[in-house]
Amino acid sequence: MLVDTHCHVADAQFDADRDTVLARARKAGVGLFIEIAESPDTWDAAIALADRHSDVYASLGIHPHHAHEVVPTEWPAISSRLKELLKHPKVLAVGEFGLDYFRMQNTKEQQDYLFKRQLELAREAGKPIVIHCRDAHEDTQKGLFEFFPNVSGGHALPKPNGVIHCFTGTWTDAQAYLLHGFMLGIDGPVTYPNSKQLKENVARLPLERMVLETDSPYLPPQSHRGQRNDPSHIPTIAAAIAELKHTTPEAVGAATTANARALFRLV
């Protein structure tokens, strides 16, 4: 069984064929899905999807692109609602949230405020976190490492602190996240011809610290560039990792599934 630890199947792009998409992924060997809800207006839909399907779970957070929508005076009400929803048995994590300095749809100050508030909330709730980081590794690490001291740079972790979604940083970044107890999410870009740094990093990373993600409907693998992505492409990502690490897709699948279960406390 494979796990898609980061998908957005509740997105409107799947309204016409959502059940068919999930069925196709199951036929491809994907047996567990983590639906990521990245703004307050998507939280209920993610939970509803998880409630309808026994193999779908949810993670709720506020993406940095929405940071300007959450002013400090509104945070108490928003955080109170999020805390209540995190009690739902199928809500496993907080996220995705973090920092994005690529598009800069809001200020660094707005992003940092929301980043820190969600870190505090996740720690209080005892939930793992799903971190978005784009062109912001230095500030992301500063924020994370205030909350998560050194754990282990080694291999298997019984309870990872969270995952760095769609990791594309340097080897130094990877080592820093591993040292502080994080998994690294590997997505479709590992199949792209120009992703030289990512491929080199994946080849060096221990399998015990990776999880598979599609980020559907975004980031399709090279074989489907320009098309809507979906969770049935998880085997393609596993195969790309296997080639880089000179192992089998089955070995990648077994390791990353165990990692996903540990990450989301499903062991």
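Above is the first protein from milestone M3; the second protein from the same milestone is given next.
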Amino acid sequence: MQAQNLVSGKVINENSEALIGVNISVKDIPGLGTSTNFDGNYQLSLPNECSDLLFQYIGHEDVIKNVCFKQNKTLSLNVTLKEASEILGTVVISAGKFEQRLEEVTVSMDVIKPALIENKTATSLDRTINQAPSIHVVDGQANIRSGSGWSYGAGSRVVVMVDGMPLMSGDQGAAEWQLIPIENISQIEVIKGASSVLFGSSALNGSINIRTSYPTSEPVNKLSITHTAYGKPQRKSLHWYKGGYTSANNLSYLHSHKKDNKDFVFGANLYYDGGFQYKVISKRARINIAHTTYSKKIEGLNYGVKANIMRSKIGDAIMWEHDTLAYNALDNDPGNRNNGYLSIDPFITYKNPENSTKHSINSRYFRINIYPGYVDSTQYSNLQAQRFSNVYYTDYQFQKQIKNFITLTSGYTFKYSDGQDHEVYGKHNNINHSLYTQADIKYQRLNLSFGGRFEHYNNKGNIINKPIFRSGINYQIAKATFIRGSYGEGIRFPSIIERFVNYTIGPIQIYPNEELKPETGWNAEIAVKQALRFGAWKGFIDLAAFVMEYDDMMEFSFGLWGLPSDELMGFGFKSINIGETRIEGLELSMAGEGKIGQTELTVLGSYTYTSPLIKDKNHIYAQDNMDSDLNYLSTSSDTSGVLKYRYEHLAKFDLNIEHNRINSGVSFRYNSNMKNIDAIFESQLLELLRPLGIKDSRDRIKGNAIVVDFRLGYDLTEDSQLSFNIDNLLNREYLTRPASLAQPRTYSILYKIKF
């Protein structure tokens, strides 16, 4: 090694694009190697002998180049890597916090490409994510494989992340979907099952990681404009805008570029929705930026900052006036979330190619200001009158690769959340410390994964310590056939609002439960994935059997929790622990994309069957304000054991076809009847006190929902497209939950241009 022989060059793909982070090692000389920088360039010193250089990059075929040196010389060696032909071609990072092939991960994972988001004319990601296999979103809360019911946005068993950073509010513990830069998504990765080992609390039922796009050396500008008109509902009593016109408008802009050793991204969004529900109007303005610097002095070092700022006012009809006036909020008094948002995310990463290690620190300050403050009140000082929530989050991660087949990932996560709203929940905070580690082993056709996490949670002296573990195996039994099995544990701590809220939204009262306990659980599955290939078209079929169990499961329950002098005479909502539950099921999913002949064909589909059951129907979990003991049997509209607010059958399918300049597609969604809800919703007592017609609506609609969407687009030029979408093509009436009717048929026009 004393000889200064130097080999250098650039590594590109078949499209002549530079590949960042290609691993270059020297066979038979352990520890000698390097990786490509942000321009795809590399250089490496070699001894006076012949050496085999191994170029490896996820999703591409390995390349071996033999080079020989006799004395001090330099050699230029450029390499082109081809996409691996025998695999799906999809690379994910969420399963182990490093790049892996989709078919080799040990957990169930789905990937949603940005084309589906753009083609669906989505204005908020939670609407598009409903098309993903096994996911159902109600009131902003994601539910995977019936792991959750309905909690009106307070608390979540599914953590939503952007580039691996949780985007959950400090007081509600809910996903802030509208902050996601939907105009700059490279792909969405969905893990189904407990993911708490790597992602902490809120990942009890799974995780959704939105990965944003990296800038390229060629500057990119994208502009999209959408206009949506609400059609005529089926029933005349719902058509409050008869003779008028109600619509929504959305404008998004993205600019990204790479210059020298710096990346820059700027995005903006303006949105206004006149609403299909009377007086329920929503609007927002959002700006996001990202800046990354790749150090020229220290190889492998990059650092930067990402930021989001948004102002929004979102209308929300929590419950309808009556089934016959389902597009009117109760008392014609919808709630409004009038908020300002700010997130600042500094980060730094150092990758040392000499010892195959990586250090990264990712931080976030996330603040939500709630408007208006109590400006007219004499009860509070200026500081007390402010209404806000904060999240201070830092994650340090260390990663090391050993001999190209073991990846060790360890880290520490700190999270401090606080909130203040003296007329809603007071002032509270909590602190969460976590240590985690995971080992991923790849040996020939075998992939193994083992991990653990220790959670320390402190809420005003209420301290909880909990270790959790996970493991998984994936084995390639044939050229394109993979079997896997996994086990994972999880925990979720209750949010500030779930424990302390005492507030009226419109005429609806939500009550506190300071005794609410954390919920824990585990998930296990076995599955098989079969990759498919027809010419240039790649896809897969996946079949999984799974089981989940939860202790002290939290549910959002409607009942007689208040006093007769309260709104609705004491009826309202409250978060409670209902005991032990078990969810079993089967899932069949498929996905694929590529060309068949001259036609580009993209397919995404799934069928999910779940059996979500309470373990002990007689377990008493609460008392109402009449001192009546409450259990599953006394509070359920269906006493067969099925958990509330779940679907046993869920099916989805999306097909997109591109030929020449024409793009067309169709989406299909089906869910079976929501068999069980809170019994009080269908009781004669509630109908006498405040008629809502919930039972009549469920009987009339029969529960089963079939929704069909259609789209047709035309490429005006190589860089611009005009498309026309019809959502709810059949204009079907269906319930998203009790007292909430989904939107009627809508018509959208979308114009996109890239320049």
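Note on the second protein: The chain has a mean pLDDT of 90.
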